[in-house]
Specification:
Oligomer: single chain
Largest sheet: 7 strands, mixed
Bound molecules: S-adenosylmethionine
Radius of gyration: 20 Å
Order of helices and strands: HHHEEHEEEEHEHEHEEHEEEHEHEEE
Shape: globular
Strand order of the largest sheet: 9-8-7-10-11-17-14
Number of helices: 10
Strand content: 15-25%
Structural class: alpha/beta
Helix content: 25-40%
Length: 344
């Protein structure tokens, strides 16, 4: 390959990403117009546009878009009921080595797993296990308008669509996740799920548009957890459901851990309440029907380094002599699923 070939490949890569973004913006505009009031449609489209502008300014944008474009251009379908699996509907064989190389341009893969033309993306997290813990306890998503705050790669958004939601919006400000999502969505561009690259703080207040709002793995990263719950309340329709998944510690209604510094090596962990304390937060934020439906200590089988996420993982965050503790001496990660409704 000479210099000119290299330039040509780069331009093709940028074009493929631009095509994806343009197509998604069009289908997003239509889907939002079908389900939300006009004022919110314009606000969300603006957030989407700004989000992609930020992503395009990112130093890794070229590598990621090269990865996206190197994926095979074949007709495919995405199986989403029991897993998230992209499979060709053409007779031609897909070169799995090339698929692996393309997807590896998007390392690290944290949330999944995904299957793409027979290549298994063994992500750091078994997000499917979380979904199995959540799904039996929530209201049916059929024909619902759903928001997934901090949706990561969009793994759960696909599974929500698999439960026949009418529209699934995910928001996440982390640029790489938009590429993970794109590498699946490009094979089903008309699917009714969209990742808007933005954060919860930029979402319009008082939308009151969503039947179900998921907030999974977010609350402990918020410095104002009560504000987060109030914000969710303002996004829900009357009678809408909150599905909240977050870290908790053992203790009673007076217990809440505020780490002195890091928690499990994470810098951005602020409040980890007991379940009883969390119930009070939800009640103070105006939620009713508050239920703790699952409690689970995170295992090193659920969160671990793999060939698709080669950095440190849970085992490195725990005390090597006592897996019940984090490396800082706090209680090891335990996660709760709470379900509640907003009636007013
Ligand atoms: C622990 S992960 C949880 C991912 C997924 N919801 C899950 O349960 O597996 C936290 C996610 O929140 C995203 N995030 C960080 N700040 C955010 C914000 N201000 N608004 C929305 N999402 C945010 C991160 O990029 C990350 O994907």
């Amino acid at each position: 390959m000479d210099f000119h070939d290299t330039i040509l490949v780069c331009e093709e890569n940028l074009d493929a990403t631009t095509t994806y973004i343009t197509k998604q913006q069009q289908t997003l505009a239509q889907a939002l117009a079908d389900h939300l009031p006009t004022a919110h449609v314009l606000a969300l489209l603006d957030l989407d546009k700004k989000g992609w502008q930020n992503i395009q300014a990112h130093g890794d944008f070229l590598r990621w878009s090269q990865g996206l474009n190197a994926l095979p251009d074949v007709q495919a379908e995405v199986e989403i009921l029991h897993q998230v699996c992209v499979q060709s509907v053409e007779q031609t064989d897909v070169n799995q080595e090339k698929v692996t190389q393309a997807l590896q341009q998007l390392h690290p893969w944290r949330k999944g797993p995904f299957e793409v033309f027979g290549v298994h993306i063994d992500t750091e997290w078994r997000s499917d296990w979380k979904w199995q813990r959540v799904l039996p306890h929530i209201s049916s998503l059929q024909d619902k308008v759903v928001l997934d705050i901090g949706c990561g790669s969009g793994y759960h958004m696909w599974r929500m669509l698999g439960e026949k939601a009418k529209l699934v919006l995910g928001i996440d400000p982390s640029p790489l996740f938009s590429f993970h999502f794109a590498s699946i969505k490009r094979y089903q561009p008309d699917a009714a799920n969209f990742l808007i690259p933005t954060g919860i703080d930029d979402m319009p207040e008082g939308m009151k548009c969503f039947d179900t709002v998921f907030s999974m793995g977010i609350l402990y990263h918020r410095r104002e957890p009560l504000e987060h719950l109030y914000k969710i309340r303002s996004l829900l329709k009357k009678g809408g459901e909150l599905v909240l998944e977050t870290l908790v510690v053992d203790g009673d209604a007076t217990t809440c851990l505020v780490p002195r510094g890091r928690y499990a090596k994470m810098r951005n962990v602020w409040f980890i309440p007991s379940v009883a304390m969390l119930e009070i937060w939800l009640q103070r934020a105006g939620f009713k029907n508050i239920r703790c439906v699952d409690l689970n200590t995170t295992s090193t089988e659920e969160q671990r380094s793999t060939a698709w996420m080669t950095f440190e993982s849970l085992v490195d965050y725990l005390d090597p002599d006592d897996a019940q503790k984090t490396i800082e001496g706090y209680q090891a990660p335990k996660r709760v699923v709470m379900v509640a409704t907003y009636e007013l």
